[in-house]
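Researcher: I'm preparing a figure for a lab meeting and need a structural model of a single chain. I don't have an experimental structure, so a prediction will have to do for now. The sequence is pasted below. Please return the structure as C-alpha cells so I can convert it later.
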Amino acid sequence: MQIEEPYQKQIEDIWKILQDVKDPEIPVLSILDLGIVREVQVNSEKENLQVVVTITPTYSGCPAMDVIHMDIRLRLLEHGYKNTVVKQSLSPAWTTDWMTEAGKKKLKQYGIAPPNPKQQFCHIKEFFEEEAVQCPHCNSYHTKLISQFGSTACKALYQCNDCKETFDYFKCH
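Model: Understood. Here is the structure written out cell by cell.
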C-alpha cells in the first residue's frame, strides 16, 4: 500500500505547469527539458499553500536564471499559486546528463548541436584535441571549433566543413 503525500495532486499539476516555462536563451526548451528543476514541494503555511521550486543553474552565474525565476513565479501565479518560493541549489552542479532526450532532439531541430553523451575521444593523445561534434544541419562529423564561446557561455561555436554552416554546440558539463 502506497501512502500518497497530502499534496501529490498539486505537485503533479505544478510539474505540468513548469513544462511551459521556457529557457529565455533557447526558447524551444522548457526548464524541464533542460533538467534544471530539481524538486517541487507543496507545504501548508497557515491557511495558504506554499510552493517551493528548487532549480539548479546550467552554470554558476547564468544570466537567464533571474528571468527563469520570474517566469516560474508568474506561471504559477496564473494558475492560482500565490505563495511561491524559487530556490537555487548549486550542489550538485548541473550537468548535461540532466537534459531530457526530447530536449536534445529539440536542440538539434532548432539548429544547435546537442551535447554528446560523452566526450568523443578514442585515444589518450586525442584528449587534448577538439571534440567530434555532429552538424545539426547535415549530420556530418567533419566540423571544426571556431570559438569556445557561442551565442551564450554554455555553447561553443562550430562550423561544418561539408555544408559550411556555422552552428552552436551545447557544451558538455
